[in-house]
Design a protein that fits this description.
About 35% of the residues lie in helices and about 25% in strands. The chain is of the alpha+beta class. Strands 3-4-5-6-7-8-9 form a seven-stranded mixed sheet, with helices on both faces. Strands 11-10-12-15-13-14 form a six-stranded mixed sheet, sandwiched between helices. The chain has a two-stranded antiparallel ribbon with strand order 1-2. The protein starts with a helix and ends in an 11-residue tail after the last helix. The structure holds D-MYO-inositol-1-phosphate and calcium ion. The site of D-MYO-inositol-1-phosphate has 15 residues, from strand 4 and helix 4.
């Protein structure tokens, strides 16, 4: 198989897995859910999250037994000693089986399956699927990002970010995250405030990191930033935004007052339609320190 064919095969299988997990999410969406909490009372998980991850992993493992698999719910179930993620150059599937669990619990329809593939630690294939709206975002590194709708049967359309480079004309997204400690909240709220009072057109919290990145790739949002996300929230979205011509980096600045490069395990992300826009935002943000994934 050529490298091209191999990448297409990875994408096809990731789409198959996302649709299988998406069917479970759809089926459970309007039913009562058994909700448990993880790191905090604001960090929710349901049986559907766990079943969706098992469905994705069972399928992808059967197809690619030599690959490595990282999933939100597997990490949550691991012991403290094995929780830490150590990336290798082997093909690594990074999966959030249900991004937007809080939305799922509240029947707020922005929920998604997020499947990213890292090759040599580089985000290379990304699939984000909202099974409620039928929106399927896909990308392969070097081959563009696409959106189709499985409910409306629309063919894939190529995506480009909005190209926006002026914060005062931008629609931006950010989130509070699940850690509501005072010190962190003071910074998080202030980071949103400085962007809004710049001003910008508006600030949104859609409740799914993967969808917010997908929306940047589709030009619906101009930028999104958050501290406290995990690698499974952003692995697929990173490919989408970059392939749509956007910028993905860190929420901290380097010596030249430019955003640092994305460090995928660092739990920080800033993506934007253009690098210029990312620069305007990052210069306003106060950094938040967190242990990496
Ligand atoms: C969460 C969502 C949310 C973001 C959190 C994530 P989950 O993922 O992406 O938008 O603010 O940081 O943990 O828990 O719904 O998979
Ligand atoms: Ca999740």
């Amino acid at each position: 198989m050529t490298t091209e064919d191999k990448l297409q095969d990875y994408l096809d299988k990731a789409i198959h897995a996302a649709k299988a997990a998406g069917a479970l999410i759809r089926e459970a969406f309007y039913s009562p859910k058994r909700i448990q909490t993880k790191s905090a009372i604001t960090d929710l998980v349901t049986e559907t999250d766990q079943l969706a991850e098992k469905t994705i992993f069972d399928y992808l493992r059967s197809q690619y037994p030599g690959h490595v698999f990282v999933g939100e719910e597997s990490v949550a179930a691991a012991s403290e000693e094995t929780k830490k993620i150590k990336l290798t150059d082997t093909e690594t599937w990074v999966v959030d089986p249900l991004d937007g669990t809080t939305n799922f619990v509240h029947q707020f329809p922005h929920v998604a399956v997020s499947i990213g593939l890292l090759i040599n630690k580089e985000p290379t294939v990304g699939v984000v699927f909202n099974p409620i709206l039928g929106e399927l975002f896909t990308a392969i590194k070097g081959r563009g990002a696409f959106l189709s709708n499985t409910l409306l049967n629309t063919p894939p359309q190529k995506l480009s970010t909005s190209g926006q480079n002026d914060l005062s004309l931008s629609l931006v997204a950010s989130e509070y995250g699940s850690d509501r400690s005072k010190t962190r909240m003071d910074i998080v709220v202030n980071n949103s405030r400085v962007v809004v009072e710049n001003p910008c057109h508006g600030l949104r919290s859609i409740g799914s990191a993967a969808l917010q990145m997908s929306f940047v790739s589709a030009g619906r949002l101009d930028a999104y930033f958050e501290t406290g996300i995990h690698v499974w929230d952003i692995a697929a979205g990173t490919v989408l935004v970059r392939e749509a011509g956007g910028y993905v980096g860190d929420t901290t600045v380097n010596g030249e007052n430019q955003p640092n490069d994305l460090s995928i395990l660092a739990r920080r992300v800033l993506c934007a339609a253009t690098q210029d826009l990312a620069v305007q935002i990052v210069r306003k943000l106060t950094p938040i320190d967190l242990p990496s994934d």
